[in-house]
Every structure is written in structure tokens, then in C-alpha cells.
Design the sequence.
């Protein structure tokens, strides 16, 4: 996935669950910033250590140590985790360095505008527009959504207690 997809979808998800979107967005960009940076320094691929499942808890822990703020730390972790999920249309070295990946050998910076990329960029742009451009409507939807979830939860609990 590309920039707008990562940013937009992460902004939407983090805002829906009341996490600071700014930190989630930074988290969603970290895997590419770290790995593309390492790639320029000679790492075998632009999807490398920061695209493994070990990165997001580490990123969150580092932010917690710096800021002592749980919400910032969780938001950074969530953003980095969402990044991996959003990258799953192509090779992701989830278990690196426990497992070695053959695609490292053939890895390059080339990409094509596949339908997945195009759809995710459009979805990301629309998410951004909705969360920030139509913020009042977004806040209304979020309120309705959680009211509905709470209502269903309470109803289920009362049925279970009978
Ligand atoms: Zn990536």
C-alpha cells in the first residue's frame, strides 16, 4: 500500500477507537521510513526488520519510554501493525529475523499500480476527507456506532443473565 492508503485508513481506525490519530499515522509510516532508509544504506529489501511482527511492540515501547503516555504508545503500535496488514497484498517478512525470506534476493523498489493499490489509495483519501473534512459527520457516526455497540452488548448481557 502507498502513502494515502496507510495514512487515511489508520487515521480512520485510530479515531474510531479514540486514539490520537497523529501518533497512529506516524506509526503507520514508520515501517516504510525505517526499512526504505535501511534499504538505501544497503539492506536487502525495502520491507525488512520494521515489516516484521516484532517491530510494532518495540516501537510502542520506545514511545512509551520517551513520552510515558500509554495512548501515544498504543497508537504508534496500532499504526505500525495496520501498516503490515495493509502491505499484505505483497511479500511481508512477518517473522524476520527468525525466518529468512527468499524474496529478499529478488526484492526491488519497482511497483505497479495494481487494482489493490488504486482502491486502497482511493479508500485512504476518502477516509482522510471523512475524518478531517467532514469531522462533524465523522464524530456523529462514531457516537452512533459506539451507542449501537453498547446497546447490543447490554442486550446480550441481559439475555445471558436470564
Ligand atoms: Zn510497507
Sequence:
Amino acid at each position: 500500500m502507498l502513502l494515502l492508503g496507510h495514512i487515511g485508513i489508520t487515521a480512520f481506525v485510530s479515531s474510531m477507537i479514540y486514539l490520537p490519530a497523529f501518533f497512529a499515522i506516524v506509526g503507520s509510516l514508520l515501517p516504510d521510513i525505517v526499512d526504505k532508509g535501511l534499504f538505501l544504506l544497503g539492506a536487502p529489501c525495502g520491507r525488512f526488520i520494521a515489516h516484521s511482527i516484532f517491530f510494532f511492540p518495540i516501537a510502542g515501547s520506545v514511545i512509551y519510554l520517551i513520552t510515558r503516555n500509554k495512548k501515544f504508545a498504543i497508537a504508534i503500535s496500532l499504526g505500525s501493525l495496520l501498516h503490515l496488514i495493509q502491505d499484505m497484498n505483497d511479500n511481508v517478512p512477518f517473522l524476520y529475523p527468525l525466518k529468512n525470506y527468499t524474496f529478499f534476493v529478488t526484492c526491488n523498489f519497482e511497483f505497479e499500480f495494481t487494482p489493490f493499490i488504486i482502491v486502497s489509495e482511493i479508500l485512504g483519501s476518502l477516509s482522510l476527507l471523512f475524518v478531517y473534512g467532514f469531522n462533524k459527520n465523522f464524530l456523529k457516526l462514531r457516537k452512533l456506532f459506539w451507542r449501537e455497540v453498547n446497546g447490543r452488548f447490554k442486550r446480550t448481557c441481559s439475555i445471558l443473565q436470564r
Notes: The CA atoms of residues 93 and 131 lie 31 Å apart. The longest helix spans residues 135-161. Residues 31-32, 47, 51, 83, 87 surround zinc ion (CB under 6 Å). DSSP finds seven helices and no strands in the chain.
